[in-house]
Amino acid sequence: MTLPPTRQALVDAAVDVFTEKGLHGARVIDVTKRAGVAAGSFYTYFDTKEVLFLEVVEQVRRELAAQVPRARFSDAASARAWLYEVVRLQVTGLIEGAATWRMINAAALGNVQIATALRDQADPLTRTLTDELGFWAEQGWIDPGVDSAVVVDALIALIEQTVQQWCTGSDRPDLDEATAVIAGAWASILRMTPESVR
């Protein structure tokens, strides 16, 4: 989806402003100054900074999900290798954007309306994983008793919260170690054998 240049400039600036100041500390004027646009142009595209915030989260989620290759596999080994790669891509994206994700989580914890809007917002990664894991259950590659629509939210929350805990201050987890630990947890939740994820 391509946004008009001014709207995209506001969204891009807002990522930085919200990350630095949080949702509540950020002001519309901070965003427009960072974007290099007239203050009044903000209201051409957004009613409130909260609406802009939701657009920012949608863009961040799209960018993270866009890295995930979409494919259907004919064998369990290829599918499980894909799962490991998905975890690695997500861990990498979350490590690189740790401050932004912390800000998103803090905003959701501090505002019931934002939390509800984020929960209701379509997440392309959720859609991709739900579809893929449903197919895997049909193929018998994961326990058919695993409800993919239910477990995907838990898997995404697991990876987000784990990486957030590991990314404190200037510390960053080792990518290979973090991927192995989280992929192993995903395998357990999906009732796969840990060896089959590698």
UniProtKB/TrEMBL annotation:
Keywords attached to this entry: DNA-binding, Transcription, Transcription regulation
Pfam family, one: TetR_N
InterPro entries: Homeodomain-like_sf, HTH-type_TetR-like_transc_reg, HTH_TetR, Tet_transcr_reg_TetR-rel_C_sf
Domain HTH tetR-type: 4-64
This protein's record includes keyword Transcription: yes
Domain of life: Bacteria
DNA-binding region(s) from the entry: 27-46
Protein name: HTH tetR-type domain-containing protein
Organism: Nocardioides humi
